[in-house]
Amino acid sequence: MISLFFLIISMGSFMLMLLVLGIQVKCFHEIITIGYRVYHSYDLPWFRTLSWYFLLCVNYFFYGETVADYFATFVQREEQLQFLIRYHRFISFALYLAGFCMFVLSLVKKHYRLQFYMFAWTHVTLLITVTQSHLVIQNLFEGMIWFLVPISSVICNDITAYLFGFFFGRTPLIKLSPKKTWEGFIGGFFSTVVFGFTAAYVLSKYQYFVCPVEYRSDVNSFVTECEPSELFQLQSYSLPPFLKAVLRQETVSLYPFQIHSIALSTFASLIGPFGGFFASGFKRAFKIKDFANTIPGHGGIMDRFDCQYLMATFVHVYITSFIRGPNPSKVLQQLLVLQPEQQLNIYKTLKTHLTEKGILQPTLKV
C-alpha cells in the first residue's frame, strides 16, 4: 500500500485528487451499508438510490466550486462551462431539492420513523466524507506538502503508538479502545513530532512539494512551479540559552514550515487519535468489528482513514487562519473573467491607488 501511495504521488496532484475522491466514495459506501444492515432497511423504497443521488449532488456542488476557483481561465474558453459555473449554486440547489422531493414522495406510513432515521444517516455520512474530502483537496491546492506531512504524521503516530504500547504499555488510556495505553499515546506523540519536523525539512527543499498546485491552460495540465515563499526558505533563528550551551552554537537554520509542522504533528498525535476513538465507539454502538472487509486483516477503508478526516479539517482551518494570504494568481483569474468595462475600472482604480502611494509616477498632462 505504501509503495502504491508513493507511485501515485510521483504521478502528480491530479492522481492524488482522484485517489481522495475514490476513498471518499468507498467510505460513504461502507457507512451507508452499515445503516442499511443495522436498521434492516431492505424494504425502504428508494433508500439506496436516494443516498447515492445525494452523494452525487453534494460532490457536484463542492467540485463545481473548485472548478470555478482554480480553473477560471479554462472555463472562460468554454461557453457551456460558463453557463454551468455562472448558475452553479442554483443548479446544485435544484438538484438537491429534486432529491428532497423524491424522499418526501417515497414516505410510507409504516416506515416513517425508519425513513427519517436513514435520511439523517445519509446526511451525517455526507458531512463526514464529502465535506472532509473536499477540504483535503483544498489543502492539496496549497501545495503537496500540506497534504503529505499531515497524512504521514497520522500514519507515523498510528505505527509508533502501537510499537510503544506493545513494548512498554501498562496503563490503559480509554475504555473505548482497551488496547490503547498512555505509554503508547505519549511515545507516539514525541515520535510523531520528530518525524513531522524531519519530513518538513526534507520536503521543503523541493518545488514539487511546496509550490501551490495550479492549472495552466497553455499546457492544459496542473503545474507545481513557483518561487518558493518565505515559508520554504531557510531562516536563521536564535537558540534559547540552554540550547546554546548544549549545541555550542548561537543560531540554527530552519525552514519556517518546520515550526508549523510541530503544530500539525501535535494535533495528529494528541487530537487525531480521537477520530479513531470516535470510530471505535461507533462500531461498538452497532456491534460490528470493522466498517467493512475491503483490506484483508485491516477492515474497511474507513477503518484506515478515521483519523485522517479530522486531520484534514484542522489543516484547512490552520492554513486559512495562520498561513493563507491574498493569492495573486487567483485574483488575476477572477479579473480575466470580468467584462472589459469592469476590467478597465479596476485598472484605473489600481493605477490611482499606486500613484497615490508613490509607486507609479503621475501621468503628465499635455
Automatic annotation (TrEMBL):
It catalyses: 1,2-di-(9Z-octadecenoyl)-sn-glycero-3-phosphate + CTP + H(+) = 1,2-di-(9Z-octadecenoyl)-sn-glycero-3-cytidine-5'-diphosphate + diphosphate; 1,2-di-(9Z,12Z-octadecadienoyl)-sn-glycero-3-phosphate + CTP + H(+) = 1,2-di-(9Z,12Z-octadecadienoyl)-sn-glycero-3-cytidine-5'-diphosphate + diphosphate; a 1,2-diacyl-sn-glycero-3-phosphate + CTP + H(+) = a CDP-1,2-diacyl-sn-glycerol + diphosphate; 1-hexadecanoyl-2-(5Z,8Z,11Z,14Z-eicosatetraenoyl)-sn-glycero-3-phosphate + CTP + H(+) = 1-hexadecanoyl-2-(5Z,8Z,11Z,14Z-eicosatetraenoyl)-sn-glycero-3-cytidine-5'-diphosphate + diphosphate. It holds the Pfam family CTP_transf_1. Pathway: Lipid metabolism; Phospholipid metabolism; CDP-diacylglycerol biosynthesis; CDP-diacylglycerol from sn-glycerol 3-phosphate: step 3/3. GO terms for cellular component: endoplasmic reticulum membrane. This is Phosphatidate cytidylyltransferase. GO terms for biological process: CDP-diacylglycerol biosynthetic process. PANTHER family: PHOSPHATIDATE CYTIDYLYLTRANSFERASE, PHOSPHATIDATE CYTIDYLYLTRANSFERASE 1. Belongs to the CDS family. It is found in: Membrane. It is a multi-pass membrane protein. It comes from Carlito syrichta (Philippine tarsier). Keywords: Lipid biosynthesis, Lipid metabolism, Membrane, Nucleotidyltransferase, Phospholipid biosynthesis, Phospholipid metabolism, Transferase, Transmembrane, Transmembrane helix. GO terms for molecular function: phosphatidate cytidylyltransferase activity. InterPro entries: PC_trans, PC_Trfase_euk. It is an enzyme of class 2 (transferase). The chain crosses the membrane at residues 6-25, 46-63, 83-105, 117-137, 143-169, 181-203, 257-279. Its EC number is 2.7.7.41.
